[in-house]
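A protein record pairs a chain with a discrete description of its three-dimensional fold. The following entry can be read in just this way.
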Amino acid sequence: MMRLSGAFGVLLLVTSAAFAGTVPAAPMAAAQTMNGINAPLVNLGGGQAPWTILVLLTLLTLIPALLLSMTPFVRLLIVFHFLRQALGTQSTPTNQTLIGLALVLTFFLMQPVGIAIQKQAIVPLEAGRITPLTAVELGSRPVKTFMLRYVRQKDVALFLELAKEPRPGTPEDLSMRVVMPAYILSELKAGFQIGAVLFLPFLVIDMVVASITTSVGMMQLPPVVISTPLKLLLFVMVDGWNLLVGSLMRSFG
């Protein structure tokens, strides 16, 4: 069974490599043995601290950015917010409910990537066969492969131009500096496309109800009072959550 703590640690190291380009080298001191594990040390103002722990603690603040930029979370959350607006329910489901659902579905989609990181980076690192920097490189490959499956060439070309990097021979040669912003732009476009299509049937209901209420002279009754229950009834009758979540999951197939 995949150990989430180990996989998450390497994923944080992958993020550090992605944002910094490379992990900065530091003067190494003698290794300190703790519970049978050799931890490389770095000099910090005369003191010594395990640099791996230092990097992980520093990168805790990047967890939201990591979640948004390297997983399907942003597409899922955008679609769910579009759905709530289309239904006309301003606070139902709540933001916490939508974020929780998006997190669960993100974990479902990213579990194969986490297993690949576990096998390729975590297990060799814990066995002492590779260094943390090598674990960063090996752990970044499954994440990059996942993002490259859904990134648009147009977005990749944009950031290649902005970064002034040469055109790579293969997609795998792209740097994380280019792949990450291109991926999140592609996910934003996909989320807005799905949300726009999702709006159409509910927009038709709003227009029909507004036309009927206007034609019969019901000026004092807002059309949304009638259209909202009708939209909710339609959504429940067609088992909307099952259809929506199923379509979203298949879009990552």
Remarks:
- Residues 105 and 167 are 34 Å apart (CA to CA).
